[in-house]
Fold this sequence. Notes:
3 helices
Amino acid sequence: MTRNTQISLTGYIDVPADRRAAIAAALPEHIALTRAEPGCLRFDVTEDTACPGRFLVSELFVSQADFDAHQARAADSPWAKITAGIPRHYSIEEISV
């Protein structure tokens, strides 16, 4: 039996108060573009109600290649420019399915 390996990313980004409006405005497009990518199984970014400015991120891609393609697209997107310099706190795992 052949096993496939999916790629999961979870974590958060803490957005400074002076950048929250711009990021909140750009987020719907970033989510829509990512969800439309080949191999995207899940892509959710939600604001943590207990910690203002913290955005929780949960991603799942069919394969490493799909995840890598997402990373390349996102690195050269308006989202990358809007969030430049904001540290990410992410964990990336391989999941056998």
